[in-house]
Amino acid sequence: MTTDAPAPQPTWTPAWDRAEGEERARALFAATFESPPDGVRSAPGRVNLIGEHTDYNGGLALPIALPHRTYAAVARRDDDLVRLVSAQEPSGVREVRLADAVPGAVTGWPAYVVGVAWALREAGHAVGGFDVAIDSCVPFGAGLSSSAALEAAVAVALDALFGLGLAGTVVDGAADDDAGRAALADLCVRAENEMAGAPTGGMDQAASLRARAGHALLLDCRDGAVRHVPFDLAAHDLALLVVDTRAPHSHVDGEYAQRRAACERAATLLGAPDLREVAQDADLRARADAALADQPDGEVLVRRVRHVVTEIDRVTAFVGRLEDGDVRGVGPLMDASHASLRDDYEVSCRELDVAVAAAREAGALGARMTGGGFGGSAVALVPAERLDAVAGAVAAAFDAAGLRAPAFAVAVAAPPAG
Ligand code: ADP
Ligand code: MG
After folding, report:
1. For the CA of 374, the nearest ligand
2. Rounded to whole angstroms, how far apart are CA atoms 86 and 134?
3. Beta carbon of 143 within 6 Å of any ligand 1 atom
4. What is the pLDDT at residue 3?
């Protein structure tokens, strides 16, 4: 780079306001199906503050819902046909008969939508055919959970359309029926695992359906219990910067499955139901390293387990600091989480490491990769007045490293699906 080359300007991905998102979905529906929809519902993407790769280990996670949402305009049909269109998928209208919608039979993005209807029907809910038009400002495949946003938007839309009574209502950013939403979240997980064939641990769907505005969602993945922890960064002159690395990622599902299998095997070798048990049982924890060391891949297993148990500790510490009003104190926990994911769990990548290092150098109080890894996004806790400067520094670092330009968003704890 020559000294007079212009500094790259950060590209921001703003969230649409609710009226705009609803209007877009409604307009796409009307243009596609030549009639107005019965209604529009929406659901947020999420960003996880801390607690990564803990959900499938019965651990703790702490996501917030994003202001970025996926909108679903729907209308009921008298037959069992589902007709779907998405502004993010230029392939046009797709059609699936619910009678034919079984795992493995539906490919591509319609599997997420039809999967939700299938899971609801499997659970005994009277769901029939429908037309649906989707539009979204949740960054796609960026680790911000556009997939769960899609499932949750469809779930609450079908809940309203077929009068299922599970989603309740959202008042002042808080849902009034958490039990019904927990049931919907489980069905969305089934849709993603079984119909879309994507392994997912449940955090994303819980965040989209069960989060509360102005709060982080402390999710206990062992029993599905949640606690809403006040999370108002603006009150502390702080902001949460999301860096979508736009890294092309490959082999993600295979790596995810390997990590998951390693954790399950380690738990079995330790005689524990899951690694959460190891995290909270001092005795088990003390003998874990020695017990795993004589495995052929013992050194790797020790590191995988160490990530999971220390990450669960960090979630508890993070919540403790928030509740003590020490919001700046969560920064070092974010840094430690990133190091653990990079070195022990080995799910980071060059783009994520560059983003995290550049953000810290430019004044972030803490930064880490978020989501499953191998690309996707990073989050940085920054003084509010440094938001543009930190984004500019990260964009410059990507440019200097010869990486594709990242995209940026600002995360505030937003309302759940509804
Ligand atoms: P992430 O959830 O991190 O964004 P995933 O790979 O889990 O990434 O999910 C992305 C997939 O979800 C897309 O490839 C597509 O199949 C589906 N999807 C998400 N949002 C939409 C949308 N607005 N329209 C159509 N398909 C979508
Ligand atoms: Mg996803």
Report:
1. 1
2. 4
3. yes
4. 55
